[in-house]
Write a structure and sequence with these properties.
alpha/beta; nine-stranded mixed β-sheet
Length: about 240
Protein backbone atom coordinates (compact mmCIF):
# COMPACT_ATOMS: atom_id res chain seq x y z
CA UNK A 1 0.00 0.00 0.00
CA UNK A 2 1.22 3.51 -0.84
CA UNK A 3 2.42 5.67 2.03
CA UNK A 4 0.27 8.71 2.81
CA UNK A 5 1.53 11.98 1.39
CA UNK A 6 0.45 13.86 4.50
CA UNK A 7 1.17 12.99 8.13
CA UNK A 8 -1.25 15.47 9.71
CA UNK A 9 -4.40 16.84 8.06
CA UNK A 10 -7.27 19.16 8.88
CA UNK A 11 -10.56 17.91 7.45
CA UNK A 12 -13.24 20.58 6.98
CA UNK A 13 -16.76 19.14 6.91
CA UNK A 14 -19.78 21.29 6.22
CA UNK A 15 -22.81 20.72 8.40
CA UNK A 16 -24.77 20.11 5.20
CA UNK A 17 -22.56 17.08 4.52
CA UNK A 18 -24.28 15.32 7.44
CA UNK A 19 -27.80 15.82 6.08
CA UNK A 20 -27.67 13.27 3.30
CA UNK A 21 -30.88 13.70 1.34
CA UNK A 22 -32.75 15.16 4.31
CA UNK A 23 -33.87 18.79 4.42
CA UNK A 24 -31.95 19.41 7.66
CA UNK A 25 -30.62 17.56 10.69
CA UNK A 26 -28.26 14.58 10.89
CA UNK A 27 -28.75 11.56 8.64
CA UNK A 28 -27.44 8.55 10.54
CA UNK A 29 -26.44 6.56 7.47
CA UNK A 30 -24.60 9.54 6.00
CA UNK A 31 -22.59 10.23 9.14
CA UNK A 32 -21.68 6.54 9.43
CA UNK A 33 -20.44 6.60 5.82
CA UNK A 34 -18.29 9.66 6.51
CA UNK A 35 -16.83 8.08 9.66
CA UNK A 36 -16.01 4.93 7.69
CA UNK A 37 -14.03 7.06 5.21
CA UNK A 38 -12.20 8.79 8.08
CA UNK A 39 -11.43 5.42 9.71
CA UNK A 40 -9.65 4.21 6.57
CA UNK A 41 -7.38 7.26 6.67
CA UNK A 42 -6.78 6.90 10.42
CA UNK A 43 -5.65 3.30 9.83
CA UNK A 44 -2.91 4.67 7.56
CA UNK A 45 -1.43 6.41 10.61
CA UNK A 46 -2.51 9.89 9.52
CA UNK A 47 -3.18 12.38 12.32
CA UNK A 48 -6.63 13.91 11.82
CA UNK A 49 -8.17 17.13 13.03
CA UNK A 50 -11.73 17.96 11.97
CA UNK A 51 -13.64 21.24 11.86
CA UNK A 52 -17.36 20.87 11.28
CA UNK A 53 -20.02 23.40 10.34
CA UNK A 54 -23.55 23.73 11.67
CA UNK A 55 -25.65 24.56 8.62
CA UNK A 56 -27.63 21.32 8.78
CA UNK A 57 -29.02 22.24 12.19
CA UNK A 58 -29.15 26.03 11.87
CA UNK A 59 -31.02 25.67 8.57
CA UNK A 60 -33.93 24.25 10.57
CA UNK A 61 -34.19 27.42 12.66
CA UNK A 62 -33.08 29.92 10.02
CA UNK A 63 -36.57 31.23 9.35
CA UNK A 64 -37.01 31.99 13.04
CA UNK A 65 -33.62 33.73 13.01
CA UNK A 66 -34.64 36.10 10.22
CA UNK A 67 -34.03 39.66 11.37
CA UNK A 68 -32.06 38.45 14.38
CA UNK A 69 -28.94 40.25 15.54
CA UNK A 70 -26.02 38.85 13.52
CA UNK A 71 -23.84 38.08 16.52
CA UNK A 72 -26.68 36.19 18.25
CA UNK A 73 -27.35 34.19 15.09
CA UNK A 74 -23.64 33.35 14.78
CA UNK A 75 -23.52 32.10 18.37
CA UNK A 76 -26.52 29.88 17.60
CA UNK A 77 -24.58 28.52 14.64
CA UNK A 78 -21.57 27.81 16.87
CA UNK A 79 -23.75 25.78 19.22
CA UNK A 80 -25.04 23.84 16.22
CA UNK A 81 -21.45 22.85 15.39
CA UNK A 82 -21.04 21.51 18.93
CA UNK A 83 -24.09 19.27 18.41
CA UNK A 84 -22.62 17.99 15.15
CA UNK A 85 -19.23 17.41 16.75
CA UNK A 86 -20.80 15.37 19.55
CA UNK A 87 -22.73 13.27 17.04
CA UNK A 88 -19.62 12.70 14.94
CA UNK A 89 -17.54 11.78 17.97
CA UNK A 90 -20.18 9.32 19.19
CA UNK A 91 -20.31 7.49 15.86
CA UNK A 92 -16.50 7.37 15.85
CA UNK A 93 -16.53 5.83 19.31
CA UNK A 94 -18.98 3.17 18.17
CA UNK A 95 -16.71 2.51 15.19
CA UNK A 96 -13.77 1.91 17.55
CA UNK A 97 -12.01 5.21 16.92
CA UNK A 98 -10.82 7.44 19.76
CA UNK A 99 -12.07 11.00 19.29
CA UNK A 100 -11.89 14.13 21.41
CA UNK A 101 -14.17 17.14 20.96
CA UNK A 102 -12.75 20.55 21.81
CA UNK A 103 -14.93 23.66 21.76
CA UNK A 104 -13.90 27.28 21.26
CA UNK A 105 -16.80 28.18 23.59
CA UNK A 106 -16.56 26.88 27.15
CA UNK A 107 -19.22 24.23 27.78
CA UNK A 108 -17.13 22.11 30.10
CA UNK A 109 -20.01 19.90 31.25
CA UNK A 110 -20.35 18.74 27.64
CA UNK A 111 -17.02 19.09 25.82
CA UNK A 112 -13.44 20.09 26.53
CA UNK A 113 -12.34 23.68 25.93
CA UNK A 114 -9.99 24.18 23.01
CA UNK A 115 -6.40 24.06 24.27
CA UNK A 116 -3.82 23.95 21.50
CA UNK A 117 -1.04 21.96 23.27
CA UNK A 118 -3.58 19.35 24.41
CA UNK A 119 -5.02 19.09 20.89
CA UNK A 120 -1.54 18.51 19.46
CA UNK A 121 -0.81 15.88 22.12
CA UNK A 122 -4.05 14.07 21.25
CA UNK A 123 -3.07 14.04 17.58
CA UNK A 124 0.37 12.65 18.39
CA UNK A 125 -1.33 9.91 20.42
CA UNK A 126 -3.39 8.90 17.39
CA UNK A 127 -6.66 10.40 18.59
CA UNK A 128 -8.96 12.28 16.22
CA UNK A 129 -9.65 15.82 17.40
CA UNK A 130 -12.94 17.47 16.44
CA UNK A 131 -12.88 21.25 16.77
CA UNK A 132 -16.30 22.73 17.50
CA UNK A 133 -17.80 26.24 17.88
CA UNK A 134 -15.80 27.77 15.05
CA UNK A 135 -13.32 30.38 16.23
CA UNK A 136 -15.50 31.21 19.24
CA UNK A 137 -16.23 34.63 17.75
CA UNK A 138 -19.16 35.90 15.67
CA UNK A 139 -18.66 37.16 12.10
CA UNK A 140 -16.18 34.38 11.25
CA UNK A 141 -17.10 31.32 9.21
CA UNK A 142 -16.19 27.72 9.97
CA UNK A 143 -13.94 27.90 6.87
CA UNK A 144 -11.93 30.54 8.71
CA UNK A 145 -11.98 28.33 11.82
CA UNK A 146 -10.60 25.46 9.73
CA UNK A 147 -7.82 27.66 8.33
CA UNK A 148 -6.99 28.86 11.85
CA UNK A 149 -7.01 25.42 13.50
CA UNK A 150 -5.13 23.87 10.60
CA UNK A 151 -2.42 26.49 10.97
CA UNK A 152 -2.29 26.14 14.76
CA UNK A 153 -1.88 22.36 14.77
CA UNK A 154 0.67 22.36 11.95
CA UNK A 155 -1.49 20.48 9.46
CA UNK A 156 0.18 19.86 6.11
CA UNK A 157 -3.05 20.29 4.15
CA UNK A 158 -6.66 21.29 4.65
CA UNK A 159 -9.05 18.84 3.03
CA UNK A 160 -12.30 20.66 2.32
CA UNK A 161 -15.10 18.14 1.85
CA UNK A 162 -17.97 19.40 -0.28
CA UNK A 163 -20.79 18.05 -2.42
CA UNK A 164 -18.86 18.76 -5.64
CA UNK A 165 -15.64 17.11 -6.76
CA UNK A 166 -13.46 20.19 -6.92
CA UNK A 167 -13.27 23.82 -7.98
CA UNK A 168 -14.78 24.72 -11.35
CA UNK A 169 -14.48 27.65 -13.74
CA UNK A 170 -18.24 28.16 -13.25
CA UNK A 171 -21.11 26.49 -11.43
CA UNK A 172 -21.29 23.03 -13.08
CA UNK A 173 -25.01 22.82 -12.29
CA UNK A 174 -25.67 25.95 -14.34
CA UNK A 175 -22.93 25.74 -16.97
CA UNK A 176 -22.45 22.35 -18.71
CA UNK A 177 -19.16 23.65 -20.12
CA UNK A 178 -17.67 24.37 -16.71
CA UNK A 179 -14.18 22.90 -16.34
CA UNK A 180 -12.70 21.52 -13.15
CA UNK A 181 -9.31 22.79 -12.07
CA UNK A 182 -6.81 20.13 -11.03
CA UNK A 183 -4.57 22.78 -9.48
CA UNK A 184 -5.03 26.50 -8.96
CA UNK A 185 -3.01 29.09 -7.06
CA UNK A 186 -4.39 31.02 -4.09
CA UNK A 187 -3.91 34.28 -5.97
CA UNK A 188 -5.82 33.02 -8.99
CA UNK A 189 -8.62 31.64 -6.83
CA UNK A 190 -8.95 35.04 -5.12
CA UNK A 191 -8.66 37.03 -8.35
CA UNK A 192 -11.22 34.87 -10.17
CA UNK A 193 -13.54 34.71 -7.13
CA UNK A 194 -13.71 30.93 -7.45
CA UNK A 195 -15.55 30.57 -4.14
CA UNK A 196 -13.21 27.94 -2.72
CA UNK A 197 -14.02 29.40 0.69
CA UNK A 198 -14.48 32.87 2.11
CA UNK A 199 -11.76 35.41 1.40
CA UNK A 200 -10.53 35.60 5.01
CA UNK A 201 -9.99 31.84 5.19
CA UNK A 202 -8.34 31.71 1.78
CA UNK A 203 -5.96 34.56 2.62
CA UNK A 204 -5.03 32.92 5.93
CA UNK A 205 -4.25 29.61 4.23
CA UNK A 206 -2.13 31.43 1.66
CA UNK A 207 -0.23 33.39 4.30
CA UNK A 208 0.38 30.28 6.40
CA UNK A 209 1.33 28.18 3.34
CA UNK A 210 -1.47 25.71 4.07
CA UNK A 211 -2.63 24.12 0.79
CA UNK A 212 -6.33 23.34 0.40
CA UNK A 213 -7.67 20.25 -1.33
CA UNK A 214 -11.32 20.53 -2.38
CA UNK A 215 -12.99 17.17 -3.00
CA UNK A 216 -16.38 15.45 -2.87
CA UNK A 217 -17.27 13.71 0.37
CA UNK A 218 -19.87 11.74 -1.59
CA UNK A 219 -17.26 9.90 -3.70
CA UNK A 220 -16.29 6.67 -2.00
CA UNK A 221 -12.56 6.53 -1.28
CA UNK A 222 -11.98 10.18 -2.26
CA UNK A 223 -10.61 11.14 1.17
CA UNK A 224 -8.11 8.29 1.12
CA UNK A 225 -7.01 9.12 -2.43
CA UNK A 226 -6.50 12.76 -1.44
CA UNK A 227 -4.36 11.76 1.55
CA UNK A 228 -2.28 9.42 -0.61
CA UNK A 229 -1.59 12.29 -3.00
CA UNK A 230 -3.48 10.75 -5.90
CA UNK A 231 -5.36 12.84 -8.45
CA UNK A 232 -8.51 13.89 -6.61
CA UNK A 233 -10.47 17.12 -6.55
CA UNK A 234 -8.68 20.46 -6.84
CA UNK A 235 -5.51 21.50 -5.04
CA UNK A 236 -5.29 25.19 -4.15
CA UNK A 237 -1.64 26.06 -3.55
CA UNK A 238 0.92 28.87 -3.51
Amino acid sequence: MSAPRYKRILLKLSGEALMGEDAFGINRQTIETIVAEVAVVAELGVEIGIVIGGGNIFRGVALGAAGMDRATADYMGMLATVMNALALGDVMRQRGLTARVQSAINIEQVVEPYIRPKAIRYLEEGKIVIFAAGTGNPFFTTDTAAALRGSEIGAEVMLKATKVDGVYTADPKLDPGARRYERVSFDEAIARNLRVMDATALALCRDQRLPVMVFSINKRGALKRAVLGESEGTLVHL
